[in-house]
Amino acid sequence: MRLGLVLSEVGHGLRRNISMVISIVLVTFISLTFVGAAILLQLQINQMKGYWYDRAQVAVYLCTQYDEGGNCNAEEATAQQKSNIEQVLKSAVLAPLIQHYDFEDHEAAFKRYQAQFAGAEGTSFVTPDFLPETFWVNLKDPSQSDAVVERMSGVPGVEQVVDQRKYLQPIFDALNAASITAVGIAGLMLIAAVLLIATTIRLSAFSRRRELGIMRLVGASNRFIQTPFVLEGVVAALIGSALASGAIVAVVQFFVQGYLNATPSSTPFVDLGDAFIVVPILIVGGAGLAAISAAVAIRRYLKV
Amino acid sequence: MVMIRFDQVTKLYAGSARPALNSVTLEILRGEFVFLVGASGSGKSSFLRLVLKEENPSKGQIHVLGQELGKLSSRKVPYFRRNLGVVFQDFRLLPQKSVFDNVAFSLQVIGKSKGFIQEAVPDVLKMVGLAGKSGRLPHELSGGEQQRVAIARAIVNKPSILLADEPTGNLDPATSAGIMTLLERISGGGTTVLMATHDAGIVDKMKRRVIELVSGQIVRDESQGGYQTQALPVQRQAPPPTASGFGAPS
Ligand SMILES: Nc1ncnc2c1ncn2[C@@H]1O[C@H](COP(=O)(O)OP(=O)(O)O)[C@@H](O)[C@H]1O
Ligand SMILES: [Mg+2]
Question: A83: domain range?
């Protein structure tokens, strides 16, 4: 096949349909940016899960004199009860699940509280005996917290057992919803992109129907006839993919790393490494989609 | 050697009640010059399209150049067509390409090298009598010259069969005569020429094999025929009229 001839045909086609080509570029750009954003959000969720779930603990709060819920009778958990609780944590049922646990007494809890809410209003009313003593349990596998929560909840002197992961769930739910929304928008835009590419290629083929008729008559192979059109779609889509890739990299570089990561928070964020995972997906996906829709669109002109 | 063989070929287009070709059986041999005559709508173009495998027969078998067309996969059709040249009444040139480029285009798209094209195109333009006009655009040529370009394009790849669908249909008698001389010369070079026409003058003068179609049926197959038979048309239906063994010099 004569590469120069094919490429000059592609160039001609692109120039002849310049406004359609620009719309393909824009639509693929926007749709693939949404695809990229959805992938980044998923990567972000995974990273946060990995980070926080490792740190998430199960808190076994003991009774204070102010508690009447749980297994409490408005009395401090007794030393007897505490040692019993420890026995349960060390029991054959729970011990294999538990990596380690720490005991936090009233004073320690109060110190942590003061550090956490330093300067906040109303903290001066809180006294150490108000804050429950707590066993902080780290699990080997955070997803197996149910067994611990269930077992510990019934033990005398325990006010409440809380899996910290449940505080994170709403955050993940929100991120998930955002990524599903991005996927939905991306899907709709991709449908538009595919239809636009197909229409453009048909227009291009129609405007060259004389040449196509002669090519078929003199025996040009299907591949030879098809290739310039497929390339036309692919080139337009590649420009769109490149722009989308640029947008994704820019968002990660300037918004996530430059802005979010600068805020005081220990949450890990996606970085350029993650962006460069997304880029090839966008490039290959955009080009592949364009190639397929162009090839399908041109098939009618290949019928012999 | 048989170049084209039709075996009980019927072509019925979708949505039409009457077949365009009705149980046509014939053989065309190497080097023959054959006129396909008949009124408008008698099935001449359909016949040529079947030879090209632009259409498939509804019934019957077609062999061209030893290949059974029904068994030819669509992927192989382009390669099969490289052995056939085609010319139409309306020339079908690319208006924005020069004479040279129109002919070169048909070689480029089948992957011929630049070197081959640089040699073959001037040769064929000389052969059709357009040596001095290779830089002209089609609209700068007369009808006869445009048809010569189309013929040059059809034969530049040295096909074994040349199909011509009313090639003189848009030309005056004098110009037509020039085109016929050219086609005769091509036929003399060993190419099988099959020409659909309803130009009585040309057919009568050339004294070549004439196949007449009426409503898709062969009603006459004469080895040195005129446009109209002197006698009553011979109704030869079944046994294939094998050109009376005449007109096959090779
Ligand atoms: N593509 C087609 N679809 C349906 N009918 C067709 C088609 N082409 C030709 N016909 C019909 O087939 C018959 C033969 O047509 P054609 O082969 O073009 O005859 P000719 O070339 O002798 O004028 C006509 O009745 C015509 O209307
Ligand atoms: Mg016709």
Answer: 57-163
